Amino acid sequence: MTTAAVPNLRVSVGVLLACAMLAAALGMGLRQTSGLFLAPMTTAHAWTASGFAFAIALQVLVNGITQPICGQIADRIGGRTVMMAGAALQAVAVAGMALSTSLPVFTFFAGIVMGVAVSAAGMPVVMASLTRLLPEAMRSRATGLGTAGSSFGQFLVVPLVGLGIEGFGWQAALLGVAAASLLIIPLALPLTDAPAPPAASGASTAAPDQTAGAALNAALRDTTFWCLFFGFFVCGMHVSFMSVHLPGFVASCHLPLAVGAGAISLIGLFNVAGSLISGELAGRWKRRELLVAIYTGRGVLIAAFMMVEKTTVTVLAFSAVMGLLWLSTVPPTVALCARNYGTRWLATIFGIVFLGHQLGGFTGAFLGGIVLDRTGSYDLMWTLSIVASAFAALIHLPVRDGPRAPVAAATA
């Protein structure tokens, strides 16, 4: 498709999607490397592992809190400027982490500064920009491609940074991550999104002159919004728990360290396929039923994994299937937000739904550590993950998956 086929684009759809995918890949891949620095940094500075982990958990929480704010700014001025600023801030944050000599300073850069940077240059802003720029028929596929790009970044960038740590040391590798963060700036150039006019809104039902306050108020009073919010909470809980603790769980099963690292990388690789499939299905199938199926699948998979012997084969097989379900929740969730609340303030509204994801992420990462400290194993956490899957599947059943009645224009 050419630029002329979509009037509000200044570049071809192919260039737009390629840049969005690469930006998402770099952003997600670079941020997923934090765990690689835990052992070398705590050893070099004589920090506790829990202190390092708290800084990363704080990053997830700050990301969730500031995401709606960055989304609101992106809705007003466009995603490109916000992403560029976020990339620059991420470079500052990672450089600060590399040069920190005390845990409080490291926590400030890794937890607070990096948390804000992730919000500005993260996937929600990219997804909202793509949704605004493209016609409705292309949106689910585009969000699937963007999510797949972020997963490919996890698969590709994490091993490269690991090699950098082995070859040049943890501090040089962190400074390399800081420099690589700046590559997001030129990749954000095609995201020239602006509030979509009525003709470009497709099935969007929000009034073109509806204010952010009116749109947000309408969403917060809607049952569908809260179903999406708490469903995404469970997604974040699963993702953070396994991202942070799966390697430790694998080690507790007396398997080689490489199996734990391979599990995380394999999740990223298979999530490329999972995100693409989800994006296609979200454009062809009911998004509500798709989310119910994804969360049900997670629960069944975790239950099956708990019942089998933990070997290299079973761990990697679990990781591959979990990868298919990993971030496959994103395309249908974004599509449901756009379908129910329009695209005018999508980054703001999806940003608040994403806050639920990050609150769940903080809970999964922190609660996993507490369960391990108190019980000596992860068994209770895996059980809670199964229960949470059932909850998420059930809470999506009331979600409205069709056009809303037109929203009256508001001036408040």
Name the descriptors.
about 400 residues; mainly alpha; Growth Hormone, Chain: A; 17 helices; globular; disordered N terminus
CATH class: Mainly Alpha
Low-pLDDT sequence parts: 1-5, 195-206, 405-412
Broad structural category? mainly alpha
* Main sheet record: none
**What is the CA-based Rg, rounded?**
20 Å
Count of structural domains = 1
- Count of helix runs: 17
Q: Which outline best applies?
A: globular
The total strand number stands at: 0
**CATH 4th-level superfamily:** MFS general substrate transporter like domains
Helicity range: over 70%
Would you kindly provide a brief summary of this structure?
The chain is mainly α and 412 residues long. The chain has 17 helices and no strands.
Describe what this molecule looks like in 3D.
- The chain has helices at residues 13-31, 38-45, 49-77, 79-99, 103-121, 123-133, 136-168, 170-181, 184-187, 212-220, 223-252, 257-284, 287-307, 312-325, 330-341, 346-375, 379-395.
- The chain has one domain: MFS general substrate transporter like domains (Growth Hormone, Chain: A, Up-down Bundle), CATH 1.20.1250.
- Helix content is 77%, strand content 0%.
- With 412 residues, it is mainly alpha-helical.
- The two termini are 39 Å apart.
- The model is unreliable at 1-5, 195-206 and 405-412 (pLDDT under 50).
- The relative contact order is 0.16.
- The protein has 17 helices and no strands.
